[in-house]
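Predict the structure of 4-hydroxybenzoate polyprenyltransferase.
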Amino acid sequence: MLFVTAVLAEVEHTQLPVATWVYGLVALIVFAALGFVVWSFRDVANRHSAKANAYAAAHGGAASHGGH
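Done. Here is the predicted structure for 4-hydroxybenzoate polyprenyltransferase.
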């Protein structure tokens, strides 16, 4: 533990390439973009409910799928 403390004490502090708030802004933009992607897939399973109902009726309903 003393070695790590000594090494950390000797390390020079370097300047970041941008201000620290920019990292938070980039993270906010990335999470907002990912949230938009997830939001855009909402209700995808129900878009073709007529086809899903026809398939379920033709194959004995949802209970007979055998865990699929």
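Helices lie at 2-10, 20-40, 49-58.
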